[in-house]
Amino acid sequence: MSLVIVLAVALTLPATMLLIAKATGGGGNVPPHRPEGPCDIYAAGGSPCVAAHSSTRALYAAYNGPLYQVMRQSDGKTLDIGVVQPSATDAGGYADAAAQDAFCANTYCWITTLYDQSGHGNNLTQAPRGPAGIPMVMGGFNNLPVADWAPITIMGHKAYGVFIAPGMGLRNDNPHGTAVDDQAEGQYWVVNGHHYNGGGCFDYGNGEIDSRDDGEGTMETTYFGNATPWYHGPPPGPWIMTDQENNLVGCVTTNGTKDCDLPIITWRFVTATADGEPHHWRSMGGDAQTGELKIMFDGPRVSKRYDPMRKQGAILMGNGGDNSNGSDGTVYEAAMTAAGTFPTQETQQKVQANVVAAKYDVPRLSLTPRSAIDTPPGLQTFSPNSAQDTTVTFRNTTGVPVTAVKLSISVHAGWTSVVSGASETSKTFAGPVAPGTSVSATFKVTSGPVAFNGDLVGNAAWTTDGVIQSETTTEKVRNVSPIKINEFAVIPTDSFIELYNAGDSDVDLSRWTLTEHPTAQPIFSSIKFPDGTKLKAKGFYLLGLANSGLVVPAQKGDSTLYVRNTSGMSVGDTIEIDTGSDVETRRIASIRTAAGVSTTLWQPLPDGPVITIPVGSTRVPYTGGGGGFGGGGGFAVEVGQKLGLGYGASFPAVDNTIENYEVVTVTAVDKPGTQTYLAQDAKAGDTTIKVRNVRDIAVGDKINLDIDSVSHGMETITVTAVNTQDGGGGRGGEPGTLVIAAPLKFNHANNLPFSVRGTGISFQPATTFAHSSNEPLLPLGAGITLDSPLSSGHAINAVVRDAAVSSAGYQGPPAPDQWFGGPALANAGSMVLRDASGLVVDSLNYGGIVDPWASEGYQGPTSGLFS
């Protein structure tokens, strides 16, 4: 091959691909060629991929970059999971699941990034908040997928899919090269046909760049599920359809109904496509393990409201255009074709043949409690020196008979595992195991005396054509004292948490902690059990929420406390600050105001979604009174008031950091951040643009417009004047015209969303810490004053208890064993009980899957939420 030819070929491949020409002599083992991928097929058919996402395999024959990134809970470190390279007997091309297993051993991992293999940089990361979503993580971010919840077999090897439970989602609101407006595009994905619900909306594809519902035709994605409020197939579903905003669309009807003649999908693995072009769209679907795709619908757009389409080009996975995230589903691979391309049916059939050739199959190995083989919880909890029956199941997914299948379980030091009713540590099945059949062995697993959080490891070895092969699988285990979070109540005058000792001996709770995590809020503190606390066998321990608590730490010498609640308090009342040996008693000298409703540091969309305010700043952008998650709906702060600025978060946002507040004094309250839209088309060369709401836009504001795509371009404009006399109207607010400093470089479409940071809140002193988007901004109120200064400092959420108050906090009976000051129990959240060494003893989610790892196991199907 000449150098000229090598360079010519290389220029047609994404930058992340490597093409290596190597001169070789005769003889030696030559690795088999890497198989072509779906995006090679799209490129050959004239519809190259602009986004290519998969956690299971390379979607190009030449792709050698990372598939996805995982972050582990234990230390916050990350690892890129790449592609297995060819060997003498293996063409490679599938995900390196073994690297994930090793990195994530004995802890949990999240998928933080699903890399774009196309070279356009359209990586998917943690989805930012949107108005229709269930706010989960700090400020409303979606939860990240747990990395090992969807094991499968592909190309004869273990890999993991992207498991989506309600509240999870990945997204890119600042894409490159995707279709916008009425431009043609194609999309496909491979999903789990048995993991779905009726929640909105399990989608992949083209969505809004501001994570909001921007009207009919502003998105075009694949959809899988059994939602019925819009177009749908016959019950019970699920069906292969599309999401075109304000409509899940499986067909177009002329009889006034939304009943579609769609097949009910029963396949374990499903391939589905969604292709659109001016005046026309088509969806196809099929069994990802065999056969061809079938037409689901091929015809005109739904109505004039969808023709022309007004697509914006964002890329979403697992949620809707407006971040509606009540869905269940699992994605294995997915891709979008470049703007202006419409894959032919022939091309899509070739992609389907490629998917079938990848040999998707169920996981080869499973490890479950014997009592829950069909519905594995994903977690077994032992008490020290206890035994449970655990089953290892091997399913032959090789396609040929195998022999000498040997099953065993690897355990932690001090544990034992033997075949139930025997003394052997493994069981071997000598005879052949036919393709598609299973063998199982149950083991008596006895835990050791030492507390432990980690993994049980199931092992299988077998022989195929004289070659010994092996695989492992894991199951999370806890070996801990049998203390359970038994009961709790979320009632203003009866908020409590009760623990129960299910064991036969007393348990020392000294220095244990209970972390209560309300949805959308960061974690600030944990309830700490004092030294000497004992919980008797079969006994209960009651934690009662005090009528108030500190919202920021109090320092030695302070005579003003900033508190969560002042309702029911009176001047002269005696109060207790903190508990146990740290308690101080004071009288209330004056009562002013409790802390207000928090809002969040501004999250800009489509740019962003995270901005960082550096150390030394005296101003922060903020979410206005109507738009904050975890608050914001009643946010108000005045000049002279104290404001708590949250700090300590990291991105992506997960529950492995502790947040704190620094306190400042407000010196000015100016315009909040805002999201609005163009009110009419703006043409290259224009020096004014009409927008739908100029209320919070000021002279000097810089605005990023549009995305980088065909016939579109991203540019930053500077506002030189704001005119409210002649706007385009619509969607409320104050329509107006913006005069900009320089002529536009590109055309921009009516309804294009954009964000403005606003002039923000000013304060003194300057910040000591950095602050980032979605961290809380808490008006502290004026607090209560004490009859004498504090003798020592007290932590955030320390108890502030007025025994005379009967309108707030736990009232009993019975009296609690211990008071806690906050956070107040919310309508949704999680609780995690840890022993003195930090090991998790018990955990739960309530009202939503706020911290998915804390309720390990299969999370669907559920009823979901619609917006």
Structure description:
The protein has 867 residues and is mainly beta. Helices cover 4% and strands 34% of the residues. The protein has 4 helices and 58 strands. The strands form 14 sheets. Strands 1, 8, 10, 15, 16, 17 and 19 form a 7-stranded antiparallel beta sheet that branches. The chain has a 7-stranded antiparallel beta sheet with strand order 5-9-18-11-12-13-14, with no helix packed on it. A 6-stranded antiparallel beta sheet has the order 36-55-38-39-54-37, with no helix packed on it. Strand 15 and strand 16 form a beta hairpin. Helix 2 (38-44) runs antiparallel to helix 4 (345-357). It is flat, with a radius of gyration of 29 Å. The relative contact order is 0.13. Mean pLDDT is 91; it is low at 1-27, 626-632 and 857-867.
Please describe the topology of this protein.
Blueprint: H1 3-10, H2 38-44, E1 49-54, E2 68-72, E3 78-81, H3 97-103, E4 109-114, E5 125-126, E6 151-154, E7 157-160, E8 162-164, E9 170-172, E10 187-192, E11 203-207, E12 220-225, E13 239-243, E14 248-249, E15 269-277, E16 280-287, E17 294-299, E18 314-317, E19 329-337, H4 345-357, E20 365-369, E21 379-382, E22 387-395, E23 403-410, E24 416-419, E25 426-429, E26 438-446, E27 452-464, E28 467-479, E29 483-489, E30 496-501, E31 507-508, E32 513-518, E33 527-528, E34 534-535, E35 540-545, E36 548-549, E37 560-561, E38 574-577, E39 584-591, E40 599-600, E41 612-613, E42 619-620, E43 642-647, E44 660-669, E45 674-677, E46 688-691, E47 702-705, E48 715-723, E49 736-740, E50 753-756, E51 761-764, E52 771-772, E53 776-779, E54 784-786, E55 799-802, E56 818-820, E57 829-834, E58 840-846
Parallel strand pairs: 21-28, 35-56
Antiparallel strand pairs: 1-19, 2-3, 2-4, 5-9, 6-7, 8-19, 9-18, 10-15, 10-19, 11-12, 11-18, 12-13, 13-14, 15-16, 16-17, 20-22, 22-26, 23-25, 23-27, 24-26, 27-28, 29-30, 30-35, 31-34, 32-33, 32-57, 36-55, 37-54, 38-39, 38-55, 39-54, 40-53, 41-52, 42-51, 43-44, 43-53, 44-51, 45-50, 46-49, 47-48, ...
Helix pairs in contact: 2-4
